[in-house]
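Priority: medium. Attachment 1 of 2:
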C-alpha cells in the first residue's frame, strides 16, 4: 500500500483550461495531489509544473502511464486527441477526467464506453456547471415538484470569438474540433439544461456560417421538446459582441433564471414566484468551477463507482449535439434514438455535409 493514500493526478495538456484543473486539485489537498504534467512543448510543461508544484514532467502520455505514478488523468488537450488519449489511459487502468467536447462523435464516445467496460477504468466528462450549488438545488427542487411542472425553457450561449481566436489551427474545423459553438461553446449551458429537464425527445434546428472564416457553423438555434412535454429553445453563437450565458426555466410556480458568462455563483440565480406563491431559494456560497466536480469525482472513486459525468449521461448531451446538426443539415426534425450507428451523423457531426460546404465545392 502506498504511504500516501491520496489520489495521484496528472494534467495532460497545459493550455489555458489546464490551470482550472490544477486549481481544482489544489482545492482538495487532503484527497488528491498533482504528480505529473505532460505537454508536447516541454518548456511549457516545465513552466506549468513549477507554477503548480508538480514534481515530475513526462515527455508524453506513454511515459507517464509507464511510470505508474498516476490514478487520474486530467485530459486538457485539443478535442481530436481526446478519444485516442483517453483510450490509452483506460487500457492502462487509469481513470480519465476529459474536457469538453469529450470526443468528436457519438461513435468515438461509444467506443470509449466499450473500452471502459472492458478495463474497469472510468471516463468522466467535465461539465462543471452541473455541480454549482444553484444547479444542484434546482435539480432537487424540480425532482421534488416544489416548483410545479416545468413548462418552458430558454438556453442562450451568445459569445464572441474574433478572427485571431480561429487562427489556432485546430479551431473551426470539423476534423479537429468536431463542430462550432454547438459543439465547443454552448455545450456547458445546454448540458445543464438537459440535466434539469431530463430526457429530450425531438430537435428541430438550423445552423449557419454567418461571419467567421471557419469550416463549421458560427451560430445555431434549436427548438427542443422533452419527454414530459416541456419545450425549450437553445441558441449558440460565437458572433455576439454582448456576451452572455443565460438559462431560464418557467415552471408552474416560479421562473428560475441564471445569467452569467463563463461561470456562476449563487448570486447569479434569480427566482420569481408566480402570483400568490412563495419559493424558498436560499443563497449560499459556492460556484460552478472545476473544484466542485472534482470533489464529486473523488467521492465516486473512493466508493468504487463511476465518477460523474458518466459516459451514459454524456451520451445524452452528445446525441443532442448530433441531432442539432442532423436536423439543421437535413431540414427535418430528429428524434432521440434516431441517429443509429450507421448514420453519417454518428461518425462525424457534419454528417452528410454542411450546406456551405456544397456551395464552396461548386
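Attachment 2 of 2:
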Amino acid at each position: 500500500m502506498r504511504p500516501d493514500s491520496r489520489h495521484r493526478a496528472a494534467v495532460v495538456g497545459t493550455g489555458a483550461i489546464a490551470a482550472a484543473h490544477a486549481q481544482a486539485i489544489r482545492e482538495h489537498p487532503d484527497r488528491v495531489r498533482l504528480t505529473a504534467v505532460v505537454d508536447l512543448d516541454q518548456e511549457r510543461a516545465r513552466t506549468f509544473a513549477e507554477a503548480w508544484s508538480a514534481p515530475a514532467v513526462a515527455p508524453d502520455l506513454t511515459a507517464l502511464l509507464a511510470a505508474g505514478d498516476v490514478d487520474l488523468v486530467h485530459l486538457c488537450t485539443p478535442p481530436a486527441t481526446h478519444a485516442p488519449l483517453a483510450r490509452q489511459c483506460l487500457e492502462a487502468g487509469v481513470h480519465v477526467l476529459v474536457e469538453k467536447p469529450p470526443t468528436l462523435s457519438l461513435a468515438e464516445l461509444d467506443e470509449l464506453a466499450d473500452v471502459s467496460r472492458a478495463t474497469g477504468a472510468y471516463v468522466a466528462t467535465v461539465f462543471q456547471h452541473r455541480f454549482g450549488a444553484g444547479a444542484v438545488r434546482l435539480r432537487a427542487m424540480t425532482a421534488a415538484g416544489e416548483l410545479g411542472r416545468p413548462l418552458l425553457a430558454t438556453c442562450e450561449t451568445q459569445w464572441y470569438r474574433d478572427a485571431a481566436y480561429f487562427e489556432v489551427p485546430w479551431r473551426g474545423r470539423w476534423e479537429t474540433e468536431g463542430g462550432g459553438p454547438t459543439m465547443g461553446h454552448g455545450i456547458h449551458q445546454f448540458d445543464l439544461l438537459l440535466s434539469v429537464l431530463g430526457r429530450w425527445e425531438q430537435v428541430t434546428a438550423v445552423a449557419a456560417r454567418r461571419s467567421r472564416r471557419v469550416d463549421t457553423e458560427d451560430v445555431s438555434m434549436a427548438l427542443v421538446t422533452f419527454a414530459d412535454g416541456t419545450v425549450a429553445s437553445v441558441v449558440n453563437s460565437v458572433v455576439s459582441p454582448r456576451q452572455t450565458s443565460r438559462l431560464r426555466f418557467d415552471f408552474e410556480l416560479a421562473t428560475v433564471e441564471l445569467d452569467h458568462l463563463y461561470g456562476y455563483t449563487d448570486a447569479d440565480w434569480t427566482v420569481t414566484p408566480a402570483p400568490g406563491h412563495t419559493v424558498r431559494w436560499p443563497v449560499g456560497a459556492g460556484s460552478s468551477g472545476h473544484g466542485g466536480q472534482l470533489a464529486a469525482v473523488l467521492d465516486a472513486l473512493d466508493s468504487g463507482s463511476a465518477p460523474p459525468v458518466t459516459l451514459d449521461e454524456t451520451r445524452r448531451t452528445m446525441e443532442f449535439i448530433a441531432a442539432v446538426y442532423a436536423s439543421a443539415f437535413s431540414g427535418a426534425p430528429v428524434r432521440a434514438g434516431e441517429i443509429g450507428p450507421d448514420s453519417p451523423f454518428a461518425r462525424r457531426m457534419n454528417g452528410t455535409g454542411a450546406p456551405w460546404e456544397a456551395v464552396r465545392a461548386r
